[in-house]
Structures
1.
Amino acid sequence: KQEVTQIPAALSVPEGENLVLNCSFTDSAIYNLQWFRQDPGKGLTSLLLIQSSQREQTSGRLNASLDKSSGRSTLYIAASQPGDSATYLCAVEGGGSARQLTFGSGTQLTVLP
Amino acid sequence: EAQVTQNPRYLITVTGKKLTVTCSQNMNHEYMSWYRQDPGLGLRQIYYSMNVEVTDKGDVPEGYKVSRKEKRNFPLILESPSPNQTSLYFCASSLWSGENIQYFGAGTRLSVL
């Protein structure tokens, strides 16, 4: 059964720093990996999706990488801002037919002004 | 505006009193699913539906029912709620084919006393 782990569980950084969030998964037979953002009282918003055949995806200040063979992904946030404060979740879509996502527990990020 | 709408957003009930949480999407998505989110456990899938009249169990289906009579609606039914179903619930939808970018509702916080 797929397991997804995110480290650290919480992270606090001063504004302007570059930072990396980590995600690892146990079964490399995946279709894709997604990074989501969750704000308090709101649902999840998809940030980046990396197909299993891809190595990375970029959107603005965000860059996500995928190393499927080692079961790892990183989310790089450049020049962090207080508005980036949120919980970041990674999720993998397994190799079955159900299109099910398996989520990590998330990293709670606080960017201090 | 593309959206997934859940109602109610907050609900307090007592053990054994049947309740329904509604979910509706306006994107003509085939795939819809329900997740629950608990501290330290991440999001876990309860049920999913690949299309009208097609539903299947996720990882934690016990105590829940769903139906998919129309493409846009996917209600979650708790026939006899128990305190261990106190949680934050999310509905999500996506296209069945192509990239599985899932759109999430804002969540329903349920407390069962």
2.
Amino acid sequence: GAGVSQSPSNKVTEKGKDVELRCDPISGHTALYWYRQSLGQGLEFLIYFQGNSAPDKSGLPSDRFSAERTGGSVSTLTIQRTQQEDSAVYLCASSLAGGGWETQYFGPGTRLLVL
Amino acid sequence: QKEVEQNSGPLSVPEGAIASLNCTYSDRGSQSFFWYRQYSGKSPELIMSIYSNGDKEDGRFTAQLNKASQYVSLLIRDSQPSDSATYLCAVRGSGRRALTFGSGTRLQVQP
């Protein structure tokens, strides 16, 4: 079946602009995760959605970052007033039900460059 | 101290050799451990997962876990040039759903 999809694949924006990144998880997966990977770094957790539960926002670096998940499927990560340090690859992952043993499957990522 | 630590490398091994990748973690209550492979410009893909102390083998890959020492490793036997990539160690800590990743070890397999 189809894997996790993300759009756009690349995004170039100017400092101060808002951007929206989209993630479409694997069909049937109820858990969705957003991570950020800066150049040469490991992945940094941003936010986690599980079904209808309140999201775990503990990884969001500032209040400029927000995310929502509509209808338990597609998720949008919004970065307001972008800064150059926001430049990174934003990766979305999904898993079946968010269980501790489950594998997270990653999408191809959105490469964000803030000029 | 980082929550998950890996040597950044590069680790260079000749084709056919065994590559040994190591990872330590700080959360003693961590329950599940994963190795992801990431090719340059690509997203991570799962190689191995391990939950219990000891060894777990899958083809040319063996994951080893020692919870007492808070140490997890990945062995790649008969290394191939196509194994050249960055290997990310990921740990799911106690009470958490998201993974905590190390910064990765870059492996180079020389033909």
